[in-house]
Specification:
heterodimer, A: 403 residues, mainly alpha, 6% strand, B: 372 residues, alpha/beta, four-stranded mixed sheet
């Protein structure tokens, strides 16, 4: 058995290039994603400062005050530098020269609102800067929507007061006093929550731990493709028949390949898990050690069996790799690795909860980042159950194939 | 040239009659169709829990308003059950309406009146906190305005301002309108969005099809020694096979391209078809280069890495910054040119893809080893 295991492991890590790739390739990708892509989407991490051209034709001090408050707000402060322009042409030229957007506040906006009218602020995004454009528009749109609600509230004070026979000067004084208070309150709306450190200043930005672990599970899964190839190659090379003729049982052959594959994946898992927890968690480890070890081992055992099944179901190595890749893709989609299960339809979400990658994802979030999370036995049980179902299937298929 | 043509025909025939060629084609079509299914299924609300420590008229009104939102689905249960579901990821978040919520809102305060307990497995905390927070602020705005009205005109005015403010307006009083360079309101329809998603998904799958089909073509298995004896190298064989694979997978692009036509962007059909063909062909060259890797394990891992890098760094999955060293380097990926098609002149994208296809298909000839 030991000899078989050594042979199978050597088939996977047969030279320096293979070892280097097994460890280096996913590591390189994770580092690239972590430093080049992830900072733009994760909570509390911001893009580099970018400029925005503003044409403010409304000279009302309230508009100036809202604008200043918005620029200095928690959402946008430090993120944008504002360049005030004098005409639409100048604004559009600024966008052509690299500003992320041009915003046009129409003349007499406050007067229009005061007179119960409606006003539209025009926004021209820079099509060459889709990320900055999307972040800015999302932040401004939610702010403007709240300002609209506040304006409606002030209008109600003013107009209902007049209808009720209140003196015009008093209603007007209340209107002016309240709108200043409302707009500054809206800009400080994050104070609504007792605890806001878990939400991003960019609103729609995403929590880093979820996506870090998604990458971990996905990369380890795709790192298992050589196992599918190796299993498919078994019948072509005749190695399996030589092993059986030399007295090894099919069970021993299967277990040896399974464990060798698992160890191969565990090497990748360990490198990635340590790197991700260093990048995402900083110096401190917030996870649950038992969950991390259990999550890693169970994921690798399951994946190794899954890859073997893909290999056993295929006649050629190319077909095995394609089958394995598409299976990983399907499981990743269903498990919420690419699109979080929170956004799935209710039925799919319920199914997703019990899929192997979803269990691995949660187990590893708990293991790497959140020691307080619960469900260790549930998620470990789900992964173990899938592994237990796959094992006899594979053994049977292996026996049929070798016969 | 005759051998090149025969190889092309042989490969095309093998793909269109062989099981895996047909299965992969159907699968690519299914992948292309998948984003359109999202147009039929409505967006699912995010599950949240609700703990009302205040239990007053205002806190109940807030719950009613939140229940009316499309983006969240509120679960009411005892605290232990909700927290347990939160900790195992069944709920994305639990909102706690703190004791004294009504008193605070009535007196014109909103600080620390809510608490959001976030699931350790949550991805939607930003969305749900913004949605529920907006409802709480609307309540606060109504209350503050009504308080002011009471000072001006007594309880009757209080009631009327409160009710009218809570009722809101059908159309927003102030709105931000996104316009394009021509000054017209930008028209990004869900169908157009789905067409782009379909095209990008297809690109991801097609690149993998090319990589596994060509890079794993080994001498002896698919390449006859007789061809080599007639001066036809395996690199040329792979080039011919790459062209055949491109022609074979090309009809899959009909799915997103028809959608572009239906979405009123028929002008994009021809440029995108050309781009898709060049993109797939460029991956034939990449596959030929990867085929030079001798270690099968390293080859498999390279295929995974190239596939992931192509999707992650090409702005297909998520928009990426358009300037800087990283953005410039990303243009080495064929997918980056394709995903820039709506940002730059289509001709520029096509020229970029022609350059990629030419370079990646020429490199294997320069890098080839003596393979006999």
């Amino acid at each position: 058995m030991k000899k078989l295991f050594a042979v199978d492991l050597k088939r996977l890590l047969n030279n320096k290039a293979a070892i280097l790739f097994a460890v280096g390739a996913p590591l390189l990708l994770v580092l690239l994603i972590s430093f080049a892509v992830a900072p733009y989407f994760y909570a509390d991490v911001r893009t580099e400062n970018f400029s925005v051209a503003v044409l403010n034709e409304d000279e009302d001090p309230i508009t100036q005050s809202i604008l200043r408050g918005l620029i200095e707000s928690r959402s946008l402060g430090g993120l944008i530098s504002v360049e005030f322009v004098q005409s639409e042409d100048e604004g559009r030229r600024a966008v052509e020269q690299g500003a992320a957007a041009f915003i046009h506040i129409p003349a007499g906006m406050q007067d229009t609102l005061y007179n119960n009218g409606r006003s539209v602020i025009s926004y021209y995004g820079n099509p060459k800067m889709p990320l900055e454009d999307a972040l800015l528009f999302e932040t401004l749109d939610s702010g403007v929507s709240l300002v609209s609600n506040a304006q409606h509230a002030i209008n109600m004070i003013y107009h209902n007061s007049l209808d009720a026979g209140v003196d015009e000067a008093a209603a007007s004084e209340a209107y002016n006093r309240m709108r200043i208070g409302y707009f500054s309150s809206i800009l400080a709306r994050s104070a609504l929550y007792e605890d806001t450190d878990t939400t991003s200043p960019l609103g729609g930005a995403l929590p880093i731990d979820y996506y870090a672990v998604s990458f971990l599970v996905l990369f380890v899964a795709l790192g298992g493709l050589p196992i599918a190839r190796m299993t498919a190659d078994d019948s072509e090379t005749g190695l399996i028949h030589r092993q059986l003729l030399s007295g090894h049982t099919p069970l021993m052959c299967v277990v040896s390949r399974w464990l060798a594959g698992s160890l191969f994946l565990l090497i990748q898992y360990t490198v990635l898990a340590v790197t991700l927890s260093l990048i995402a968690g900083g110096a401190a480890f917030f996870g649950h050690l038992a969950a991390m070890i259990l999550g890693g081992i169970l994921l690798c055992l399951f994946l190794s069996l899954g890859m073997m099944l893909a290999g056993l179901l295929s006649n050629t190595a190319a077909f095995a790799v394609r089958t394995a890749f598409l299976s990983v893709l399907a499981l990743a989609l269903l498990g919420g690795l690419l699109v979080p299960s929170a956004y799935m339809p209710a039925v799919v979400r319920d199914v997703s909860y019990y899929t192997p990658f979803s269990a691995a994802l949660r187990l590893n979030i708990m293991g790497l980042f959140s020691g307080k999370a619960e469900g260790l036995y549930l998620f470990a049980g789900i992964l173990a159950a899938y592994t237990a179902v796959l094992l006899p299937l594979i053994l049977r298929r292996f026996q049929r194939r070798t016969q | 040239m005759r051998l090149f043509w025969h190889t092309f025909k042989y490969r095309l025939k093998a793909l269109s009659t062989g099981a895996y060629g047909i299965v992969f084609f159907l699968l690519a079509v299914a992948v292309g169709i998948s984003p359109f299914i999202g147009l039929i299924i409505p967006d699912a609300p995010v599950p949240i829990g609700w703990i009302d420590e205040d239990d007053t008229q205002f806190s109940q009104r807030l719950l009613k308003n939140v229940q009316a939102l499309d983006v969240v689905w509120v679960t009411l249960d005892d605290e232990d059950t909700l927290i347990s579901n939160l900790q195992t990821g069944r709920l994305e978040g639990v909102f706690v309406i703190k004791d004294g919520f009504e008193d605070a809102i009535k007196s014109g305060e909103f600080e620390d009146t809510l608490q959001l307990l976030r699931s350790p497995y949550s991805t939607a905390a930003g969305v749900i906190s913004e949605s529920v927070g907006s409802e709480a602020l609307r309540l606060w705005l109504a209350c503050s305005s009504a308080n002011e009205a009471r000072l001006l005109g007594g309880d009757k005015l209080y009631e009327s301002v409160f009710d009218d403010t809570i009722a809101g307006t059908e159309e927003p009083i102030l709105k931000l309108s996104r316009k394009n360079a021509a000054g017209e309101t930008g028209k990004v329809t869900p169908l157009l969005d789905a067409a782009y998603s379909s095209l990008y998904l297809l690109c991801g799958v097609a690149s993998f099809f090319m990589l596994t089909g060509l890079a794993m073509t080994r001498k002896g298995a698919d390449f006859s020694d007789r061809l080599m004896s007639r001066g036809f190298s395996i690199t040329r064989f792979r080039l011919a096979a790459g062209i055949a694979d491109t022609v074979y997978i090309l009809p899959c692009a009909a799915v997103p391209l028809i959608a572009f036509g239906l979405a009123g962007e028929g002008r994009l059909i021809v440029p995108l078809l050309v781009m898709f063909a060049l993109y797939v062909f460029a991956f034939g060259g990449v596959a030929s280069m990867l085929a030079l890797i001798r270690s099968q394990t390293a080859l498999m891992l390279s295929i995974s890495v190239v596939t992931i890098a192509n999707v992650m760094f090409s702005s297909m999955l998520v928009p990426l910054p358009s300037s800087g060293l990283f953005a410039a380097a990303a243009h080495m990926l064929p997918a980056r040119w394709l995903s820039s098609a709506d940002l730059m002149n289509p001709l520029t994208s096509i020229l970029g893809l022609i350059a990629c296809a030419a370079v990646y298909n020429a490199l294997p000839f320069l890098l080839r080893r003596k393979e006999r």
